[in-house]
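Q: I have four molecules that I believe assemble together. Could you output C-alpha cells for the complex as a whole instead of separate predictions?
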Amino acid sequence: MSDEYESLKLKNQLCFPLYACSKEIVRRYKPFLDEVDLTYTQYIAMMVLWEKGELNVKELGECLFLDSGTLTPLLKKLEKKGFLERKRSEKDERNLRVLITKEGEELKKKAVCIPEQMGKCIQLETEEAMQLYQLLYKILGQLEQ
Amino acid sequence: MSDEYESLKLKNQLCFPLYACSKEIVRRYKPFLDEVDLTYTQYIAMMVLWEKGELNVKELGECLFLDSGTLTPLLKKLEKKGFLERKRSEKDERNLRVLITKEGEELKKKAVCIPEQMGKCIQLETEEAMQLYQLLYKILGQLEQ
DNA sequence: ACTTATTAAATTGTACGCAATTCAATAGCA
DNA sequence: TGCTATTGAATTGCGTACAATTTAATAAGT
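A: Yes, here they are, computed for all four components at once.
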C-alpha cells in the first residue's frame, strides 16, 4: 500500500540533511575555533574582513546572509576582543563602517591552518566537493530573488 | 602572485554555503509552517512522531541530531500546543516517552501539502537533488563516528 | 546488600538567528 | 524650504543550539 504521507517522512526530506550537516560541521569547527577565540559566525565575519579590510554592516550582512539583529551584537563582541573597530561613516552617518585592526590582521596567521584541519573531517573526492559546492550555490541563487 | 590566505576566503569554503543554504531554506519554510503553528525544529520533531507514534527523548535526539538541551523545552512547547504527551516510562523512569496525540495526528493532514509547496522554491533536477541528498548523507555518515 | 559507574533528562549559561519595531539620517519631491 | 519616504542600524522578543553541569534512576561490580 502506498503511504499518502510518504512526503512527510524525514528520510524523504532534502532540507533536513542540509540542516543537520550544517550544524554538525559547525560543531566540528569548535575545537579549532576555540584556539583563535572565535565562534563560527564570528569566524565567517572575520573571513570577510580579512579579505575586504573594511565595509559597512549592510554589506557584511549581504555577504553572510545575516541581518543587523544578528550582526550588531556579534560585531560588538569582536570589537571588544580587539579584532575590529566600528565607526560611523562621516559621509552618511547611517552607515556603520567595520574596520579590521592590527590584532584582527594578526589573527589571520593563527587561523590559516583551520581550513586544512577541517578538510580532514570531510572526506570528499574533489569532484564530489565541487558538485556539492555548485549545487548549494545554485540553490542559494534561486533563493536570492 | 599566489595568496597564502586563499584558503580563508569565503568563496573557497564548503561549509559556508551549507550553513547559508540551510538557514535560507528554513526561513522559506516559515510562512508555510506558520499555517500549522510549528517552527522548523518543531516540524522535524513532529515528522519523526508522525512516523513512529512514540519514542523517548534520546531516540528522537538521535534521529534529529539534537540533544536534550534543545529538545526538552521544544517538547514542552509541543505538549502545551496539544500535539504530544510526555510521560516517564514505567519500566525505566529515566526514560521520558513522547507520545503523539489525536491533535498531533490531525495536524499531519494540514502539513502534508508543505513538502510540495517547498519543492517549488528549490528547482533542482531529480538527478541533482539525488546527488545533493547522497553527498549530504555521506558527510553526515563521516561525522557520526 | 552496598558502593560505584553509567545513563537519560533537565538545567544553566552563552551565542546566535530572525521577524518586527524603533530611531536617526538622508533622499526625494512638491 | 518643508514634508514624506526610504534607508541603515539598533533594539526587542522568541526560539533554538550546544557545552557543561546536575539530578535521579538503574546497572554493574564486589
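A: One point stands out. Chain B has a mean pLDDT of 96.
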